Amino acid sequence: MGLALVGIGEGLGIPMSLTGGAVVSGAFFGDKMSPLSDTTNLSPAVCGTDLWSHIKGMIPTALPSMIIALIIYAVVGMKYSGGAMHGETVAIISSKLQETFYLSWWLLIPPVIVVAAIKKYPALPSIFAGVVVGGIIAMVSQGASLHDVFNAMQSGYKSQTGIVAVDNLLSKGGIQSMTWTITLMLIALGFGGILEKTRCLEVILESVMKVAKNRFGIIAASTFAAIGTNAVTGDIYLSIALPGRMFAPAFRGQGLSTTNLSRSIEDGGTLVSPLIPWNVGGAFVAGTLGIPTLAYAPFAFAC
Fold first, then answer.
1. Is residue 245 within 8 Å of 46, Cβ to Cβ?
2. Under the phi-then-psi rule, with left for phi > 0, alpha for psi from -120 to 50, and beta for the rest, what region is 48?
3. How many domains does the chain have?
């Protein structure tokens, strides 16, 4: 979605950095509030609370942030309200999609299954069910073979419609294209594991906890601990897991629900991740959108 929207923004004469910031705001807000998100499942797990309580607990910070961001984007966007996409370009893209693929409402069944399943089952089985149904529908409706389905999962799909806008939108790399992100993640986790086992970060956090005596202090400390771990290790998962484990006893000692902790570390973990160039989140966004992290970061208002 981000790639498509950056292209549309460029066509309307909007600076790529501004569009990129808006894309990041929306994407990471959605990631933060989604029951399918890895970080949204990780946070309550390490803090000792349940998924839906965690999502509900994030509303007091996530929703106002997004509303404020939308207002700012609306005001800034008025400057570019005179821009217009050429109607014939939209028509060409639309007709080419209809020529190339069979389009129908029932192709929405896979995402509907995922959304319905997540209400009763864990995230991974729900996503897997959507993948299986999606593969079956691809074979039935689009004429794809079983080999095509597995090849798309592994190596991606290469669109060859001859329309640059359509090909850029539909061509994706599959699991193989994600290996560089996964490798970066493994390296960051390895580095974080060294810091954790040598108690480097633990000693720092213990010192912080001695200073944070009241409720405000401990919530602020947990948020900044997540931000700091994000910056030091470059890994979003460690920025959630380590402060979550460290601060949980202190929150219970203050009589605070651990949903406050899971919200704090998501605020400092998930939303700050795309703003750090050497973080997995920042590196992924920059590589995907082709916009340097420090160029879009000032415009990611929700984050």
1. yes
2. left
3. 1
